[in-house]
């Protein structure tokens, strides 16, 4: 199986968490992209990433990159998803994947046309609790479900004193 080269667009806190925990068989974090050369170079050095780019377009133009992880503010996701797909890259986008259904429909259509994977980074789908809840709902032991209301959150370390 070919080793997939990943590129990261947007190098904030979520991208740092992604890089720290990236451990995928047959894949490598190959490139980091920012709107700033220095930030991209520092991020790449911190995580042992081979390439750094001071523009998103420069990263996307690299033919060695197979998959792009988009970790920018969600208001920029649609534009970067479409550019990534146009460059022939598979895309994993942070949530919310787009700002509205029209943007998502356009991105899904382009991904289908180009035969590329477009996915939203939703960790909840891989949590054991989610699988158990789905099992309970499907077996019908609660009766016919009419509505599900759930709160979801995560514990983040506070970086300032209150």
Topology:
Layout: E1 4-9, H1 13-21, E2 27-33, H2 37-47, E3 51-53, H3 56-60, E4 67-70, H4 77-86, E5 90-93, H5 101-114, E6 118-120, H6 128-139
Parallel strand pairs: 1-2, 1-4, 2-3, 4-5, 5-6
The CATH architecture is 3-Layer(aba) Sandwich
Within CATH, the superfamily carries the name NAD(P)-binding Rossmann-like Domain
**What is the share of helical residues?**
25-40%
Task: Count the beta strands.
Answer: 6
CATH class: Alpha Beta
| Rounded mean pLDDT score | 92
Give the strand order of the largest sheet, numbering strands 1, 2, ... along the chain.
3-2-1-4-5-6
How big a fraction of the residues is strand? 15-25%
Q: Roughly how many Å apart are the termini?
A: 50 Å
- Compute the CA-based radius of gyration: 18 Å
Structural class designation: alpha/beta
How many helices?
A: 6
Which stretches are poorly predicted, pLDDT < 50 over at least 5 residues? none
Shape: globular
Which fold name corresponds to the CATH topology? Rossmann fold
Integer count of domains? 1
Describe the structure.
One of its GO terms (molecular function) is oxidoreductase activity. It comes from Carnobacterium alterfunditum. 38% of the residues lie in helices and 17% in strands. It has 162 residues and is of the alpha/beta class. It has one domain (4-123): Rossmann fold, CATH 3.40.50.720. The chain has a six-stranded parallel sheet with strand order 3-2-1-4-5-6, with helices on both faces. Helix 4 (77-86) packs parallel to helix 5. It is globular, with a radius of gyration of 18 Å.
